[in-house]
Amino acid sequence: MDTVTHDGRETAYRRVGDPEVLYVHGSGASHSVWANQYARGRPSVALDLSGHGRSDDVDTPVGTETMDAYADDVVAVAERTGADVLCGNSLGGAVAQHVALERDLDLSGLVLVGTGPTLSVDEGLDSLLAGDFEKAIEVLHRPDLLFHDPDPEAVEKSKDAMRECGQAVTLRDYRSCDAFDSRARLGDIAVPTLVVHGEYDGMTPPDLHADLADGIPDAELVEIADAAHLPFVERPEAFDAAVDAFLDGR
Predict the structure, then answer these.
(1) CB neighbours of 27 closer than 8 A, spacing ≥ 6?
(2) How far is CA 77 from CA 44, 71, 83, 115, 154, in A?
């Protein structure tokens, strides 16, 4: 792991080669959720957002200020490594949109996975995340939420990552997702964009992905069969093939 210092804190990242793609994880996760992607050899980089993995935390309220902090993490790593395509999942997809809309970063593409222009959180899930965190973890790992039909080892790794991230940061993530809304500005995203969703994604329904693809001027929509919210974990070969075709075809 390498680090970059910015805005009074250190952000950690794992780099492979001279990266083109910067992977941005979702709520309660870390860079390691992208292990299938950065381990396959195509130059890339994956970061830990503030308060996740090995990155320093920030003391920000839920919503825009947290998104601003996460966007600053992404920009710092992108500028350090030269990556110019952001690939974000769920919360990470919202952060990638925020960077494209609010930051002066020279991007050549976006890959938005399991995400939408809004990311509302069910009140029951919010209550569990704030109260019984362990039960919330179990609920999130029921079929067709984070995963459709995964390897049991992948499920245990995902649960452990959420526990390691901790209740406070995970709750901040989900509540920041709930406050996110880019619908009025999708037309301002001026780079080629690939929108990817799993066939059985119960966390971010297909219509939200369609809204992204319809609202962004230069966007295409791809569905990954037999996967839910984390298609890059469940079906990495199909996901990587879609991303490679997008990158090579820009």
Answers:
(1) 90, 91, 170, 173, 174, 177
(2) 11, 10, 8, 21, 27
Q: Is the pLDDT of residue 250 over 80?
A: no
pLDDT in tens, 58-83: 999 999 999 999 999 999 999 999 99
DSSP code at position 185: G
Q: Tell me the per-residue pLDDT of 199-216, one tens digit each, with 9 for 90 and over.
A: 999 999 999 999 999 999
Residue 74, domain extent: 2-249
Q: For residue 150, give the 3-state DSSP assignment.
A: coil
Both tokens assigned to 31:
């860079």
Residue 233: predicted pLDDT: 97
E strand or H helix that includes residue 22 = strand 21-24
Instruction: Report in angstroms the alpha-carbon separations of 101 from 57, 120, 148, 173, 187.
Output: 24, 20, 32, 20, 10
Tokens of 102: 């609010």
Helix axes 64-81, 167-179, angle to 10 degrees: 100
**Backbone phi, then psi, for 45, in 5-degree steps?**
-145, 145
- Count how many domains the chain has: 1
Instruction: Give me the CATH number covering residue 142.
Output: 3.40.50.1820
Yes or no: say if 77 and 4 are a contact pair by the CB < 8 Å rule: yes
Q: What is the pLDDT of residues 151-184, one digit of tens each?
A: 999 999 999 999 999 999 999 999 999 999 999 9
pLDDT value for 163: 98
